[in-house]
TrEMBL record:
Keywords: Aminoacyl-tRNA synthetase, ATP-binding, Cytoplasm, Ligase, Nucleotide-binding, Protein biosynthesis. Belongs to the class-II aminoacyl-tRNA synthetase family. It comes from Andreesenia angusta. GO terms for biological process: asparaginyl-tRNA aminoacylation. This is Asparagine--tRNA ligase. It catalyses: tRNA(Asn) + L-asparagine + ATP = L-asparaginyl-tRNA(Asn) + AMP + diphosphate + H(+). It is found in: Cytoplasm. It holds the Pfam family tRNA-synt_2. GO terms for cellular component: cytoplasm. Transmembrane segments: none annotated. The gene is asnS. One of its GO terms (molecular function) is nucleic acid binding.
Amino acid sequence: SQSVRELYRGQDSFIDSEVFVKGWIRTLRNSKSFGFIELNDGTFFKNIQIVFDEELGNFEKISKLSISSAIEVKGKLVATPGAKQPFEIKATDIAVAAESEGDFPLQKKRHSLEYLRTIAHLRPRSNTFSAVFRVRSLAAYAIHKFFQERDFIYVHTPVITGSDAEGAGEMFRVTTMDPINPPMADGKLDYSKDFFGKETNLTVSGQLEGETFAMAFKNIYTFGPTFRAENSNTTRHAAEFWMIEPEIAFADLEDDMELAEDMLKYIISYVLENAPEEMEFFNSFVDKGLLDRLNNIVSSDFERITYTKAVEILKEAKAEFEFPVEWGCDLQTEHERYLTEEVYKKPVFVTDYPKEIKAFYMKLNDDNKTVAAMDLLVPGIGEIIGGSQREVNLELLKERMKESGLDEKEYWWYLDLRKYGGADHAGFGLGFERAIMYLTGISNIRDVIPFPRTVKSAEF
Ligand code: 4AD
Ligand code: MG
């Protein structure tokens, strides 16, 4: 048999020959003596049209099939010049592989993304989600390709961990269903006697473990699930999301930004080239202007400004912000979007944030007030990447941990990295879902993850 992708990509080579395709009915209409089926076999965004008529022994049966029935079609591929699609199949034989019941929820009419979210097990069969999840798969591949071509080592960092990489305490705790030891008299659990012998949580970031590998392999990356128990019910926050975290040794913040910019441009180019039909669909139905914007991004430099400069711009801005801006405050989404959408109209790196609002591991700048951090902000979303050069001075690092309320004994292995050849290094984290939102124009994070885990949602 052939896949629909092969037929479309092989174009003329299959015309006038016998083909055999297997897929699901997306639409079916018929008259007394003939009918049309739009068939999708999952390998290609577009459907293929099947024409059938009374010559089929089972014409009546086929005519009555419900949407989403699975069928196997033999026939001749004929060119259809001038039609919407370049060819169709004149069926000589259609076998029913699996019938669908008549009440399949995805009938031809367009459904809202909100409704489709309630049927996450069926939504991959809709146009929008077929496009989203193919782009997601391609983007994941592009990321591996980008790093592997540059000789980065892929590290699998632990999902269950005893440390808090961001020092922000937004963690999901891990314990067994039935604690190995009963609660203590005060009702609390004694983690020292629990499964792992200490309190553990789901990882918020693979960075700290990634750094250990960077000190051995120089250039590494992680790509895996991360978890945050932030109670933020927004369109950009999920409790479970995927993160890509490269870590590079003998490198500073400049190198870090260069890597981030190259990587993002590479992913965009790869997806534009390898999913033209899907990207065209997003451009027409989700976000007009998406293709122009992405093409511009690939061909121009990202902006780079310091946090201090960003605050100056925001203070002078004519816009009304819900949260007023002062030096020292964290930038809110409204500020991030103002900078990228109103001021620069392109991706912007904001660097050198006040140390108080950033994680303990970031390198302290000479001014003793700011750290060598960078956030990449993009139009439509805000922060998509967060990164920094790392503090490699052991004493300064210990001090920063103390300020952040972290127990240095718990991080003894992390401090060891500074003792034994702790070369300058830097890294960043790209939120994979935010990258997919950026690539597709889809505005809610719930619609770029196969099975979204957000506050108060865990159907699966
Ligand atoms: O800025 P964050 O918290 O940085 C880190 O975790 C560092 N350890 C990265 C590093 O330097 N290796 O997170 C990185 C990115 C954010 O820019 C954002 O895109 C994404 O991860 N992210 C989320 N995406 C979806 N839902 C959430 N709750 C997210 N939190 C962060
Ligand atoms: Mg961040």
